[in-house]
Write a structure and sequence with these properties.
- The chain is mainly alpha-helical.
- The chain is 56% helix and 9% strand.
- The radius of gyration is 16 Å and the shape is globular.
- The C terminus is likely disordered.
Length: 115
């Protein structure tokens, strides 16, 4: 059984990370910056992983962009309604470049597993 105090500390830590400073990638082709957080929840990652496991890599990239790309105010840059447009009318090379940064969140446990 989880000690409530430990769970409280764990959720507090995650909230602090989610509320931390935004990072950004410049996208000169779009004449904008895309902001993002270095962490995301299992719920967000789960949707992306599920699409990848179904062999829907392109949709997984677009899902990642929709879920993780933020405005300077920390609000979502895209909505689910933008999915078709992103899939069909936006340069895939640019989406791939942005998603490489958005998804490049090598965590300490991944480093430990490699050793």
């Amino acid at each position: 059984m989880t000690t409530p105090n430990v769970l409280s500390k764990a959720t507090k830590h995650f909230k602090q990370q989610l509320n931390g400073e935004l990072q950004k990638i410049s996208v000169p082709e779009w004449e904008t910056d895309v902001y993002y957080r270095s962490v995301s929840s299992f719920a967000t990652e789960g949707k992306i992983v599920e699409l990848q496991q179904q062999g829907k890599t392109v949709e997984a990239l677009v899902e990642s962009l929709i879920a993780k790309a933020l405005t300077p105010a920390g609000k979502p840059m895209f909505t689910r309604m933008d999915k078709t447009t992103l899939l069909t009318q936006v340069d895939p090379k640019i989406i791939m470049r942005i998603c490489t940064v958005l998804n490049n969140t090598t965590t300490e446990y991944e480093v430990v597993e490699k050793n």
